Amino acid sequence: MPTPRRDTFSRRLTFGERPALRRRLTFSRLGAHGHLLAPAVWTAVVVAMMAALLAPRDTDPGLSPMSLTVSDFAALDRGGPIETAMASLGLVSLLLLAVARKRLPAMRGLPSVLLAIWGAGLVLAAVVPTDPLTTQLTGSAYVHRYASVAAFAALPAAGLVLAGRLGPAAGRTAWWLRVLSLLAVAGAGVMAYSAGPGGRELIGLVERVMLGCEVIMLGVLGRYVQRLARGGRGRAKLAP
What we know:
This protein has helices at residues 17-32, 37-59, 70-76, 81-103, 110-127, 139-166, 172-195, 203-229. By secondary structure, it is mostly helical. It has one domain (28-229). It is globular and about 50 Å long. The protein starts with 16 loop residues before the first helix and ends in an 11-residue tail after the last helix.
């Protein structure tokens, strides 16, 4: 009896199927290394905080981190630890986004867009320089400014949306995301006042507190996604 001929054409991937397969393979590799996610995120958090707090001493000990922003110090030390930490934190955030979209259904949609704005905004602000405080702002300085504003506005918004979606099933994670997001929003409001009517009084201190809330939020999210990758609680579902 003749052997049926295999339809080899049906076994080949079409042109449209190949990108989808590559994406699935990429997410599978990222998921396989999910146990490394939280350490990577928290390392980036610590590096960013150390750069924000200690780098001003290396730039100019006479300058006060209480009255100058992180960008002000970055402008005086191009390619230094502050810009390196910003770029690293942005890239780690994009990595977290890639894994979270695979493991956490609540992350898909608006939270993903907002977290992508945060990560891309940090990288762009690190690459595009600002100008020293005493000089007139150039085009690159405006790009740096608006990229930073978009980033620092997007992450608290993502945290609030995600906290609402996770619901009680996420335990303390949703509570921490909500509290840290609200603190960051409050800090942004105080910082806006300080930059205007407040005459930049303590603007550096307020910015660093706001930055601390936001990067800790990343660490909390990274830890939660790592637990999902280990199968500790299964896949989180959208809150009703």
